[in-house]
Design goal:
The structure is a homodimer of 465-residue chains. With 465 residues, chain A is of the alpha/beta class. Chain A contains 12 helices and 25 strands. In chain A, strands 3-2-1-7-18 form a 5-stranded parallel β-sheet. The radius of gyration of chain A is 24 Å and the shape is globular.
């Protein structure tokens, strides 16, 4: 039965997933078309809607005092805007030819089909849980959802020991290591690579390594976890590698996330190499006029390498939602792609990257030169000037900007935005040297650090002609 | 006599002006070519070389404790690099056909001619001194040079009264008003316009007005100074307008600067409507293969309006010098132009602008829409999030970005750089909405304030189609 029969001109938009991408899409579609024209039904299997997953480490670390502050909009607020948001309701199946989804109320167990005219898939990502002995033991935590964060805080509150092991040293791993140090834990980070933050080149990651050990975090590099040991109570007691065991009262997994696309896969929708849904520029699932997808469950086009990537980041999810809602509401908008910008504040350092790392450039078949400089965030004579290291990649011969990485003190991270826009515009590093950036002693030396790097990159390009 | 005869292949580069543009040019030319190939002679009539004029308000205000910290490179350091920098030596005449300059040693009074193969004119700007009664009285100060700053500090040290009047409310006027408040003065600002910071539209300037009065600064708006009154000792005692007199123990002039181009004018070199030297993109004076000019004495191309402008700013002077030195040294570089970016930190506010104000757009023949939003510097839940107001101008119909103004708390000003690069690239506000800017809770809401403004500007463009 296709329930769209008999509903006249009123269309139904179904949204799977009640977080950033899904609810942005629903909200924007509602702004475009009133309830009389467009019914919107959204399913969320968890207990929270529209929250900032990026804020979880700050909540765990104590900088953000209260979980509810991470919630941008409650289910009640969404419903007040004419969005039928059904919490604790999990979608189990998408019937693409039949234009309907099957959902289960997790409280009652009741299942039912809901038909759609347009569908939005915003199922997000799930943290990688390695298939190792003991990974499911109490005390081993991922930190992807607010529920995860609450579970971790409950463990911390109920555990006397103060030894924490963080597995993985990407953004989440490093942020969680710092959060646990702030809570008075002795923290060991077990990292597969030689340096933390593999989103940076190793020479820049080394600066983060130094800051982490400076905070008292124990770094175990080049180490692969082989098992999670448990004690007599069944709880986690240690993390084992090939060479050693690290006692642990609590373990946090920070080894990345993957697109949550099992529903989409079962429905026969197109997935990329990273298991993310593939969409066109209007965020429609390729080959499916009435199905949109966005947020952490899709792959996006990297405008610098020309390749598809998976990047789980709230700012992209919000933009996707905005585009989807506009298109689903009868308007027109596109998401052209990303340049791979990410910023982070950890262990007293600001860390930023955009564009390609050295290995990304090689993978994309690009030849490049690099330039690394040290500069300051303010005029040298102005109080509070902090130092920063800026690394820049430029294409060999053409001099086109390929990427920038920055590690430093206050005022370092957001400078990467200049490079993000320059990458989007396809600028050369030579053109960048004359960019008209804001200059005043409290904000910058006369040559902004990004321009100092560009000047050095120009020389490197000339030397490699 | 042409002194280049008999010097064989060794060329002489003569530089007029020993501050940012001139000494950057000299230093870069020296990097390009050794002393055996290129002799470099630089003339500076003042006592200081290569200093940060932009830092003077912070020195006067006490944030920078020591004058010498504003000096990037001393005359001795320049000489150690093979630049024959002659201090306290004023160039009185440029003989363009004869390729020589006449200079006077201000200590001895001796005059002599020096020939050149290539000439750099970097004579800077001079503060506007209105031709009003009493303007030359002791106690009335401009603040363009280090010497000016020292003279003002000497006046402050030697004066018991604590009443200061600042004439003009541009960057320098507002910065000096704050510096004097910080030194314990009662400060009155007499301003010709309705709002301070005429580099902003009035609706944005109003926010600065509020902050200034909040600091206890008395603002006299829409007021034209008619005279400077003097007391029995001949020193300034008050500032008069048509309506009132404002008692003053010290007066600071902050009513702008003009290109210092009397030498160039006398030599018959081409000047623009704002009396600045006109150059090509390689910073050669138009029509003169061997004469370069840069810094505060030239006009620059505004890439947004397509018109010539005069902008006195250290960061441009340094870039000009870099380009001139490269070209004078036999290399190739250009300065494509500016987009009009300026940032400032005054009275607890960060202030930024780039591109066109409303009146600039009208003057350039451009039709536009505006969008103004309030947003925050960090995620709302992250500690220390400050608010900011962002105003954006976009071209009618095309949606091309025309300008951005930002007034707000910490983290506001340097966000303007994103717009500066977008202007340089000719981006539309619609394309800006999907810019991949750095996002993390300590640095930005999921929608960066500049992108929030872009979203609103997109709607304004659509509404004005």
């Amino acid at each position: 039965m296709n329930m769209s029969l008999g509903r006249g001109a009123r269309e139904r938009l179904v949204v799977i997933g009640g977080d950033a991408a899904g609810m942005s899409a629903a909200s924007q579609a509602r702004r475009m078309r009133p309830s009389a024209e467009l019914e919107i039904v959204a399913f969320e299997r968890g207990r929270f809607s529209s929250y900032s997953a990026c804020g979880i480490p700050y909540w765990v670390g104590g900088d953000v005092p209260d979980r509810d502050r991470l919630i941008a909009r409650t289910p009640e607020e969404h419903r007040a805007r004419g969005i039928d948001l059904r919490m604790r309701t999990e979608v189990l199946e998408i019937d693409v030819p039949g234009q309907r989804v099957r959902a289960r109320d997790l409280e009652t167990g009741a299942e039912s089909w809901t038909s759609y005219d347009k569908l939005v898939i915003a199922t997000g990502a799930r943290p990688v849980r390695p298939e190792l002995p003991g990974v499911d033991a109490p005390g081993v935590h991922g930190v992807q959802t607010l529920d995860d964060g609450q579970a971790l805080l409950d463990t911390l509150a109920g555990t006397e020991g103060r030894r924490a092991v963080v597995v993985g040293a990407g953004y989440i791993g490093v942020e969680m290591a710092e959060a646990l140090i702030n809570r008075g834990y002795r923290v060991t980070v077990v990292n597969r690579g030689a340096e933390p933050m593999s989103t940076l080149d190793a020479d820049m990651g080394r600066l983060v390594h130094r800051a982490m050990t400076g905070l008292g975090i124990t770094m175990v590099d080049d180490a692969e976890v082989t098992a999670f040991r448990t004690g007599d109570d069944g709880r986690v007691s240690a993390v084992a590698t090939a060479d050693a065991e690290y006692p642990a009262d609590v373990v946090v997994l920070g080894i990345g996330v993957r697109p949550q696309t099992s529903l989409a896969r079962a429905a026969g929708l197109p997935l990329g190499d990273r298991q993310g849904l593939l969409t066109d520029l209007a965020m429609r699932v390729r080959g499916h006029e009435n199905v949109f997808a966005g947020g952490d469950c899709v792959e996006v086009l990297d405008l610098v390498s020309g390749q598809q990537r998976h990047i789980a980041l709230g700012t992209h999810a919000n933009k996707h939602g905005q585009v989807i809602g506009t298109n689903a509401g009868g308007g027109y908008a596109t998401f052209p792609g990303v340049v791979g910008t990410a910023v982070s504040k950890v262990c007293g350092l600001e860390i930023a990257r955009t564009g390609l790392r050295e290995k990304d450039a090689r993978r994309a078949g690009l030849q490049y030169v690099t330039a690394t400089v040290e500069s300051t965030s303010r005029a040298g004579y102005y109080p509070g000037a902090g130092t920063m290291t800026v690394k820049m990649l430029a294409e060999r011969r053409t001099g086109r900007l390929l990427g920038v990485q920055i590690v430093g003190g206050e005022g370092a991270a957001k400078r990467v935005d200049v490079a993000a826009v320059a990458l989007t515009a396809g600028m050369t590093v030579e053109r960048m040297t004359s960019l008209d950036l804001g200059y005043a002693p409290p904000f910058s030396p006369v040559w902004d650090p990004v321009l100092v790097a560009a000047r050095k990159a120009v020389k490197a390009v000339a030397a490699a002609l």
